[in-house]
Write a structure and sequence with these properties.
By secondary structure, the chain is α/β, with parallel strands linked by helices. It folds into two domains: 6-196, 3-Layer(aba) Sandwich (Rossmann fold), CATH 3.40.50; 201-427, Rossmann fold. The protein contains 16 helices and 14 strands. The chain has helices at 15-24, 36-43, 52-58, 95-105, 124-134, 174-187, 198-229, 233-240, 264-274, 280-290, 292-307, 332-342, 368-372, 385-388, 392-397, 412-416, and strands at 6-9, 29-32, 64-66, 77-80, 112-116, 144-148, 167-171, 192-194, 313-317, 346-350, 363-365, 377-380, 402-405, 421-424. The strands form two sheets. Strands 3-2-1-4-5-6-7-8 form an eight-stranded mixed β-sheet, with helices on both faces. A six-stranded parallel β-sheet has the order 11-10-9-12-13-14. Strand 4 (77-80), helix 4 (95-105) and strand 5 form a beta-alpha-beta unit. Helix 7 packs across helix 9 (264-274) and helix 7 (198-229) packs across helix 10. The longest helix is centred in the middle third of the chain and has 32 residues, at 198-229. The protein is globular. The chain starts with 5 loop residues before the first strand and ends with a strand.
């Protein structure tokens, strides 16, 4: 199957690593993306996303990128990796998936294998994707094949990457499933589990991320409760984690970000609603987790009042949604900034992985010492490795009087012994 040309539609955090992996496995790969700037960077061997591994791989790959679907007409395997966001009402937005399907539909009919990796709710492949692909007259299972392999990737993880994470695959029919499994076996060094249907494969992704969202919501609610009870929630979780079975440690924080955990539950919520079921548990978890930026800001305002700070400048350390990457998707830091501004505070940010060119509506300093100048109040929103060594004495010398550790990643004991007013999330 290595002789089969591959087209990857969507060259973001999912599609680009996958395209590079297939190219490394000697596939002839072309990537399609609507972003002209991104395409130009890839063709110039420049990474459009903040990832050292991808930047290195682009220097030694034959991957080609284009904005024209016609350039991918020769592909035998077509993988859709476009975003699946939610709108302002938290309703699934499938327009990128629909556009990708329309873009490739006119070229189908030569036995191509179409794989959807984008995260979708159960039923989308059969109810949305399939009708678009068959609209030009091609028949699935005869003229082309359809499968779903929900993406699994963990940006910034040095252990688990696109090439070694186990995957699940569902197919429209047995032939579709067999072809998709064969393809993934040719590029992955990981087990592949065939699912019983497309819907089962679609459900896997939303279930695994809803599981995480629910558990994070539980410890976030504990953090809010324990803040009033004078109990350190981190110590309690660590204590519970000593039980060698039936407990999985999750930790609270300033909010849940990324393109998966704060988005995927809504896909299941909406699809179930359309079919007569109300996911009250999932909706409650989402409500709790969406409240964490506001809770964090409230902690900051309380700490400012305790320290009698009146200067309006607040420094936000970290803008990305997770440590040691530059990914801003659904980042709670951006909501924290919006809420701080609503309290008439002047916000400046510092993030070693994010710059002012990343289309952020906030002043982003390029130097930490410069950012700290005049900032009596600091809120740590992302646990970048560069922040873990911050010592309270160094901050105090620079005039900092209040620090809120939104990721509970600083040494609580040393900060509580310092002149700074310290506050964590549930500790």
């Amino acid at each position: 199957m290595v002789d089969a040309p591959v087209a990857v539609i969507g060259l973001g955090y999912v599609g680009l690593p996958l395209a590079l992996l297939a190219a490394q496995k000697d596939y002839d790969v072309i990537g399609v993306d609507a972003d002209k700037d991104k395409v130009q960077k890839i063709n110039s061997s420049v990474s459009p996303i903040h990832d050292e591994a991808i930047a290195s791989q682009l220097q030694r790959t034959a991957l080609r990128a284009t904005t024209d679907f016609a350039d991918a007409a020769h592909a035998r395997i077509i993988i859709i990796c476009v975003p699946t966001p939610v709108d302002h009402n938290c309703s699934p937005d499938l327009s990128p998936v629909k556009a990708a399907c329309r873009g490739i539909a006119r070229f189908l009919g030569g036995g191509q294998l179409v794989i959807v990796e984008s995260t979708i709710n159960p039923g989308v492949c059969e109810e949305v994707v399939l009708p678009i692909l068959e609209a030009t007259g091609a028949t699935c299972g005869v003229d082309f094949y359809l499968a779903h392999c929900p993406e699994r990737i963990n940006p910034g993880d040095t252990q688990w990457n696109v090439g070694n994470i186990p995957r699940v695959v569902g197919g429209y029919d047995a032939a579709s499933l067999d072809e998709a499994v064969t393809f993934y076996e040719s590029i992955l060094d990981a087990p592949i589990k065939p699912m019983g249907s497309l819907k089962e494969a679609e459900a896997v992704k939303v279930v695994e991320n809803s599981f995480r969202d629910i558990n994070i919501a539980f410890v976030n609610e504990l953090a809010m409760s324990f803040s009033t009870l004078n109990i350190d929630v981190v110590n309690v979780i660590d204590g519970a984690a000593t039980k060698p079975f039936s407990f999985m440690a999750h930790y609270p924080g300033a909010g849940v970000g990324g393109h998966c955990i704060p988005v995927d539950p809504y896909y299941l919520i909406e699809y179930a609603k359309q079919n007569g079921f109300d996911h009250t548990f999932l909706k409650t978890a989402r409500k709790v987790n969406r409240a964490m930026p506001a809770f964090t800001v409230d902690r900051l305002m309380g700490a400012r009042a305790a320290a009698k700070v009146t200067t309006p400048k607040v420094l936000v350390l970290g803008l990305s949604y997770k440590a040691n990457v530059g990914d801003l998707r659904e980042s709670p830091a951006l909501e924290i900034i919006r809420l701080l501004r609503g309290k008439e505070l002047d916000v400046i940010a510092y993030d070693p992985y994010v710059g002012s060119g990343d289309d952020i509506d906030v002043e982003v300093s390029t130097d930490l010492n410069e950012a700290l100048s005049g900032a009596e109040t600091v809120i740590l929103a992302t646990a970048h490795k560069e922040f873990l060594s911050l010592h309270p004495d160094d901050l105090h010398k620079r005039g900092v009087r209040v620090i809120v550790d939104g990721r509970n990643c600083l040494d609580k004991t040393s900060y509580q012994r310092s002149p700074l007013v310290y506050s964590g999330i549930g500790r």
